[in-house]
Specification:
274 residues; alpha/beta; ten-stranded mixed sheet; single chain
Length: 274
Amino acid sequence: MKKILIPTDFSENAEYALKVAAQIARENNGEIILLHMLELPSQAGDAVGSGSDIPEIMFFKNAAIGRLEDLMDEDYLEGITVSRVVQFDMAFEGIMKISQINNIDLIIMGSHGASGFKEMFIGSNAEKVVRNSDVPVLIIKKEQPNFNVDNFVFASDFTDEIKKPFEKVVEFANRFDSTLHLVMITTPNNFKSTPIAQDIMNKFAAKFKINKFETHIYNETNVEKGILNFADSINADLIGMSTHGRKGLSHFFNGSISEDLVNHSSLPVITFKI
């Protein structure tokens, strides 16, 4: 939690993410990197190095720097180390590059979500980052004046595959002194009896040092609906998921529960890459 990356397009949702980042950084003596991407038209690619469009490009870069510096002066960032980056790149690619270069521990993004054809064929930048980021990604949908994670829902099938990302889940929950609610969603197509599901979760949880946790089994018609309804039933503050990072046709045909939650949940969602 020492280095937090906040991509911003200067929207209201992006500032919601920045305010949450400020709270996390303050509690963990962390620093924030503010990133703004300047997406140039593909035909203007050569103009970055030479050409008559350079003055216009520099105008937009300087305007972005000015807006970032205004953000850095906000009262809620006082006392926190904040740096700024303006990058010429497509949003998703730039976020991935800056994250790797700066050894980022956590990416926090504001998101409006996506729906309909936009969700199916384009997807939000947040969705793409969730799918590809090697570090945890926290998605914020609305203002969180007090980002307290008292009840943290983590849904999974609790197989050996998620042991490594689950270490980061436990670290996050323990750092926030959260009660970690481990939930297995059983559906008609993937049914497990209560004793079997409970045994799987108990054996899995015993391998980790979780300060506070509970196990739950929740029945629903599909996994996404089960996670959302369960989170609502316990008044959860945060939903966590591990993601495979599916790409290409595999992602198109199989979809991703994590990405669906990013698009459809009104609660903050944090994802951990397998």
